[in-house]
Amino acid sequence: MGHTGAGKTALVDRLLATAGPPERQNGDHQLAHTSYVGHADPDHRPSRSVSLSLCSVSHRGLTVNLLDTPGYPDFVGELRAGLRAADAALFVVSAVDGVDGATGLLWSECAEVGMPRAIAITHLDQARADFTAAVEECQRAFGTGVLPAWLPSRAAGGGVRMTGLLSGRIVEYGPGGRRESAAESDRSDVRHAAARAALVEGIIAESEDETLLDRYLAGADPDPDLLLADLEKAVAHGTFFPVLPIGLLTERRADHDRGERDGNQRDGNQRDRNGRDRNERVAEDRGPALAGGFGSTELLDLFVQGFPAPAEHPLPVLTRPDGTACDPATGDPAGPLVAEVVKTTTDPYVGRMSVVRVFSGTLHPDDHVHVSGHGRAAAGHADHDDDERVGALSRPYGSVLHSVPDCPAGGICVVTKLATAETGDTLSNLDDPRHLPAWTMPEPLLPIAIRARGRADEDRLATALSRLAVEDPTLRVVQDPETAQLVLWSMGEAHAESVLERLAQRYGATVDRVPTVIPLRETLRAPARGLGRQVKQSGGHGQYAVCQIEVEPLPPGSGFEFVDEVVGGAIPRSFIPSVEKGVRAQMAQGVRAGHPLTDLRVRLVDGKSHSVDSSDMAFQIAGGLALRDAVRSGGVVVLEPVLAVDVSVPDEFVGTVVSDLSTRRGRVVGMDPVPPPPGSASSFAATRTVVHAEVPESEMSRYAIELRSLSHGTGSFHRQPHGYEPMPPQLADSLLG
């Protein structure tokens, strides 16, 4: 995980080339982009990942499942799915771009649940990239537990030398590939010695072997094998975070190198805080990316040696599908089956494909399982319990799916042809059904109204949207009954464009975006009287109905009241409900701008009838005419929907957010400080403030995008209906003409 453009997908490709099957790498070292769940995905763009990708590799006899998550904030739902399935997280940080606010929030989110983490520094081949400076920035952002495990430097012949601070090994990457040197690292080097001492102390501080600390304090040099054994414990505690330099596969042209040298000359004799020349430090810390890159083998070693085993991954509290308690499950392959669908997609040839993480037990092809989905009804996914048969199981290697005989606890596999299972559903044994609680998914807050371009598109649209809603839990499809618009609620502009592109390319449903209609209301400005006459005599049975009403506005939110005050039998009792029905029908249609009327009290005070020509329909028409007459006399007030908005931002952005809400005709009604999580050392976990405001809905249609810009990606908000309030006269006049 990490910010967009940090090189996450390129890193996965590099790891596949290092540990995967030979067909992933050809003689020119050209790698194909990682494809989602191992098959060609039309949604994957080389310039930006938009969905979660799973790739499995084998290293030193162990299987490593790599979940490549999108870095763009619009696709945070895919990232949350990856977090649910993962045992540990690798943060990919660009040495050029540094750490952004969104990455800092993700780090804090992992810290709250104690997820083990490590950091890979990429883009070290870029101009003026500095590994030491990148590590220092990560330490300021994430805390003092961030410590490098390898140090890069230039090697003879233009290669890259990596020095292991724990093992003391030296590995050189050059034109001939990777070569492990027999020479030991120079521990007399001040920089190397200081970095190694910090790393050793960090591991020992997390070690459960107290004698190791005593020997170290006595001056004994710890055994590297003992340190490597304790590395996994230190990482598993979630407070120690090793850092590795990674060189990705890039093409460097001579003019690029020449421009980089010119840039270094323009920098002059800039000095860092230690007094060293900056150009000298760049040359020391940074190595060019060669054919094959560097650091991928060392990173795979860290996965195997330093990351905790799946059995150490704590499981959420399990329940039965009906909500009753059940025994907890452990990561035992022989235990009861507990698995979860973390991603769903549809292949035009294979059909529905589900990425499944097995937490307990073992999943086999053709197993009969219970599928349980609960807790997502608010997002449009109804609760359901079904029994299904599992299809084939596969492990993806890049663009190829390889069949596997089973998937034990801790594994992730691709399951085909689960007809009813959706993202977030739990798979368990038929005779022992269990349910994992639904994980927290972000709320889609950007509405996009669409309309089918043609009749053929309209026929395909319903099926396409239902499938996309199953695949993407952050997409909500709403058919607004009041405006008759089809609205897609998305995470942002990029997410919306991705959905529209999938509709057109995968399902052949082309749509047009149309302005989103805000449902307005009307009410009476002042009390008024109205007279309705429906007198029609044109041969045959006539129509005769006269009614007189008095109308007055009610406080906001009161709705509608109808009061019968007719005396003396002026209107027969059987026709009183007809008048009310006609008034209600006219209120639903509106009077001036065509918006429904609300917050009215209508009193029926008088009327006339005819023994032959009066009828139910005549009094319905007269009731509607009487309301129209009263509204013409009393005037109309246009009401607009208002939202109760809670905006959460770091304290430094509170003033900016409050000012922006004021420009949106919003009223700030309160603020509440939110302290950082206990024990969090991240600078991005600084105190936050929730700003409570009431804002017209028409001003909030693109707030999801604008808040991200205002808060540098660190803000979030929640909205809910608050009621209706009068629209400013100048805006209302434009609607009323």
UniProtKB/TrEMBL annotation:
GO terms for molecular function: GTP binding; GTPase activity; translation elongation factor activity. Pfam families: EF-G_D2 (PF22042), EFG_C (PF00679), EFG_III (PF14492), EFG_IV (PF03764), GTP_EFTU (PF00009). Residues 255-287 have a biased composition (Basic and acidic residues). InterPro entries: EF-G-like_DII, EFG_II, EFG_III, EFG_III/V, EFG_IV, EFG_V, EFG_V-like, P-loop_NTPase. The keyword Protein biosynthesis applies. Residues 517-635 form the Translation elongation factor EFG/EF2 domain. Residues 637-735 form the Elongation factor EFG domain. It comes from the Bacteria. PANTHER family: ELONGATION FACTOR G-LIKE PROTEIN (PTHR43261:SF6), TRANSLATION ELONGATION FACTOR G-RELATED (PTHR43261). NCBIfam families: PRK12740.1-1. This is Elongation factor G. It comes from Frankia alni (strain DSM 45986 / CECT 9034 / ACN14a). The lineage of its organism: Bacteria, Bacillati, Actinomycetota, Actinomycetes, Frankiales.
